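Thread: Newbie trying to understand structure tokens

Hi all, I'm a second-year student working on a class project, and my supervisor (Dr. K.) asked me to get a predicted structure for one chain before our next meeting. I've only ever worked with sequences, so writing a 3D structure as a token string is new to me. If someone could post the tokens and maybe explain what I'm looking at, I'd be very grateful. Here's the chain:
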Amino acid sequence: MKLLLTSGGVTNPSIHSTLVQLLGKPIAECHALCVPTAQWGHPMCGPTSVRGFVAAEPEWQHLSGLGWASLGVLELTALPTIGAERWIPWVREADVLLVDGGDATYLCHWMRESGLADLLPSLPDTVWVGVSAGSMVMTPRIGTYFVEWPSAPDDRTLGVVDFSIFPHLDAFPTNTLPDAERWAAEIGVPAYAIDEQTAIKVVDGSVEVVSEGKWTKFGS
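---
Reply by user tm_fold:
Sure, no problem. This is what the structure looks like when written as tokens:
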């Protein structure tokens, strides 16, 4: 897939331009599927925040509210019970998957259980836009610092990319650069701390940081 890994979504013209480049056509011509699953694994999320995301309410203007041609919902926890013959065509017909934040280990669990993780290599033209946990799930580890799902066996995630992500840099009192430095010292892989104005584009293994804000890379 083509990956646009963000902390806060498509928050500025640079990230917006990168998204359009990845899509290959205007956002208004693209069909999107919203993936809210990560929210269920985080204690700060729930029915109201899931509704806000899928209804493209103002707080989600930088993800579901960008002006897509259509918005659908892909709830991963439902997929194992309905059969791949139904849901795989929905994914293949979408131009983009909009994957919201929450808990990345919970999202990882359901990506594997649903079969979506296995499907990803066969979607070379599909764009994955992640926010927070929706981005972190593609990394090898998120660090125990970010695990909120009580049933998570550890902090490992999909490992589609070879670096980890510390999101929301300076957005919260516990997400400062010193916090990121301590996190990076324990993570054991190259890593990026990114703020809400930063995204990481990954296409065919090539990594590019797109930013109008602050970011730091740890490791080689």
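A couple of things are worth pointing out once you decode it. The longest strand covers residues 198-203. The chain has a mean pLDDT of 97. Feel free to ask follow-ups in this thread.
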